[in-house]
Design a protein that fits this description.
- The complex is a heterodimer of chains A (about 270) and B (about 260).
- Chain A has eleven helices and no strands.
- Chain A is mostly helical.
- Chain A has one domain.
- The two termini of chain A are about 35 Å apart.
- In chain A, about 45% of the residues are buried.
- Chain B contains nine helices and ten strands.
- The longest helix of chain B has 18 residues.
- Chain B starts with 6 loop residues before the first strand and ends in a 10-residue tail after the last helix.
- Classes of the chains: A mainly alpha (about 270), B alpha/beta (about 260).
- Chains A and B meet through helix 1 and helix 5 of A and helix 2, strand 6, helix 3, helix 4 and helix 6 of B.
């Protein structure tokens, strides 16, 4: 076995540690490769939004005839909402990778090596955002094929996708933070389910604000899903409302930053609890 | 060989919250440990004695509640990063991503620690050769046998040419053949490469065969330390079992004591 007298004491490189972006890139690459080797997960995450478009688009078709709906095509109205809903549903799973690593022992090895804690978190987030971007693009294409029209053109679509990534970043970070705090798959799934479904219905993702009951209207205003949906809706409409884009965009950006900081703190707290 | 001990721990205490009104658990209770550089040192004790907690504190994974420890000359709490650069840690679990191949795991580990692209692949090939993993290098780690995966774990621990290598129960769950091959590898590390090896095990035979010195841990303290031969001679016993019985005051039964 030890035929070749290879010295283990000759360091491969003098560098003390890889620069932060390289570390984060390597971590991202690992999760991306892992993702492609589990084609089930990848497939489901692309098919899921398609199913929603078809189901919601058909079941609620008649809603355009309700007085006060204010849109002629439910599908055109719906696509931005489904886009944001998709970010929530797939983001909820983002933390599971950390739980797998904690259980297997990979996390122990990483945390006892000179690797930046924030790079471990950021790298995984980058992979999640790439996945979200793919989902978003597929969803817009399927929506268009089904009959939705995006008057805002390519610019509008790009703005909508950026908004969806900000929402995804926030939600993935929350999922990572919960995973690193609870360290339990069942708890993560339970908490996510508890949050995601009410969040969807307490927003304007599926129904215009005018048709929502008063208490839902009041709650929906503070729901990040509403911010992102309204941003995307105006961006893809014939007349983009710059004020909505700016205010909702800043809110989403702030939320993403705060939740990211929380997930990094959760990584450090995890180690402190060992 | 440097005169500074590879590991020097004094009065390590580690308490964990007991939870729900129960008193805190004292996993380490004033543990002292000195491991001279270039030796293989065995930490022996039943499950729950504090072996893994000791390893976690010394590898900077966990922080001691009190006491001090230096590894490779650096303080584990004040100079954690310097310690991390000088050590390799093979935990009880696996360190490898099951979806990546052994080669990919090794290259990623080397690059995370600062090696360039080509240096990292070179290093990976070196370690694959050394551990006899060339045939499995391109298969997914999750599909490999337990013995092969354990060798990969050790290779991952060696990726940055550590001065001190921590092996937490490296042969638990391995068949006799895989265990013998792992022993050979551990001996070679210390003999040929001057790596200090701190090995936890609850196999007395393993400690007897591999370790230059052992420390017997019980209830979070070292109750006896010395070379296996000296410990046996001291009490006139024939085996490390006798030594354990003498110092811990109860029979060695790793599985029963939990």
């Amino acid at each position: 076995m030890s035929a070749a007298p290879v010295s283990v004491s000759a360091p491969p490189a003098a560098a003390a540690r890889a620069p932060w972006p390289v570390q984060a890139g390597l971590v991202a690459r690992r999760w991306i490769v892992d993702g492609f080797r589990l084609p089930w997960g990848l497939g489901v995450s692309v098919i899921q939004p398609v199913v929603w478009i078809v189901l919601f688009g058909n079941v609620f078709k008649a809603v355009t005839q309700v007085p006060g709906f204010g849109h002629t095509s439910y599908l055109t109205f719906l696509v931005p909402g489904i886009l944001m809903m998709t970010m929530l549903y797939s983001g909820a799973w983002a933390g599971t990778g950390f739980i797998d690593d904690i259980r297997s022992g990979v996390m122990d090895r990483l945390l006892s090596s000179p690797v930046s804690r924030s790079a471990l978190v950021a790298g995984q987030l980058v992979q999640q955002l790439l996945l979200s971007l793919i989902q978003g693009v597929v969803l817009l294409l399927i929506g268009w094929a089904a009959g939705a029209r995006y008057a805002g053109g390519p610019t509008g679509m790009a703005i909508a996708l950026v908004a969806s990534l900000l929402l995804a970043a926030a939600f993935c970070s929350v999922s990572a933070a919960v995973a690193l705090t609870a360290r339990d798959q069942t708890a993560l799934i339970g908490i996510s389910t508890l949050v995601v479904l009410p969040a969807t219905f307490l927003s304007t993702a599926l129904m215009p604000v005018a048709l929502l009951p008063h208490w839902v209207q009041a709650t929906a205003r503070y729901n990040p899903l509403t911010w992102a949906t309204e941003l995307a809706r105006t961006a893809m409409s014939p007349s983009i409302d710059g004020r909505v884009v700016l205010t909702r965009g800043l809110l989403l950006l702030a939320l993403a930053a705060v939740t990211y900081a929380w997930s990094v703190a959760a990584m450090r707290n995890y180690q402190r609890s060992l | 060989m440097s005169p500074t001990p590879a590991v020097e721990a004094t009065g390590l205490v580690k308490t964990y919250p007991g939870g729900r009104g129960r008193p805190p658990v004292r996993a380490l209770d004033g543990l002292d440990l000195t491991v001279p550089a270039g030796t293989v040192h065995g930490l022996l004790g039943p499950n729950g004695a504090g072996k893994t907690t000791t390893t976690k504190v010394l590898t900077t994974l966990s922080t001691a509640s009190s006491g001090t420890a230096r590894v490779a000359g650096h303080d584990v709490s004040r100079e954690a990063d310097a310690v991390r650069r000088a050590i390799g840690y093979v935990s009880q679990g696996t360190g490898a991503d099951p979806l990546l191949t052994p080669r990919e795991n090794l290259v990623m580990a080397a690059r995370l620690r600062g090696a360039g692209r080509s240096a990292a692949s070179e290093r990976a090939e070196e370690l694959l050769g050394r551990m006899g993993l060339h045939d499995e290098a391109g298969r997914r780690t999750g599909t490999l046998s337990g013995g092969t995966r354990r060798k990969l774990d050790v290779a991952l621990g060696l990726v940055d040419a550590p001065r001190v290598l921590f092996l937490d129960e490296p042969t638990t769950g391995l068949d006799p053949e895989a265990r013998a091959s792992m022993w050979q590898e551990i001996r070679a590390l210390a003999a040929d490469d001057e790596v200090t090896v701190l090995l936890t095990t609850h196999y007395l035979e393993e400690a007897d065969r591999l370790a230059d010195a052992v420390s017997i841990i019980d209830h979070g303290r070292v109750v006896a330390t010395g070379s296996p031969a000296a410990l046996k001679a001291e009490i006139g016993g024939a085996s490390l079992e006798d030594v354990y019985l003498h110092h811990a005051g109860r029979a060695w039964d790793a599985e029963a004591i939990r």
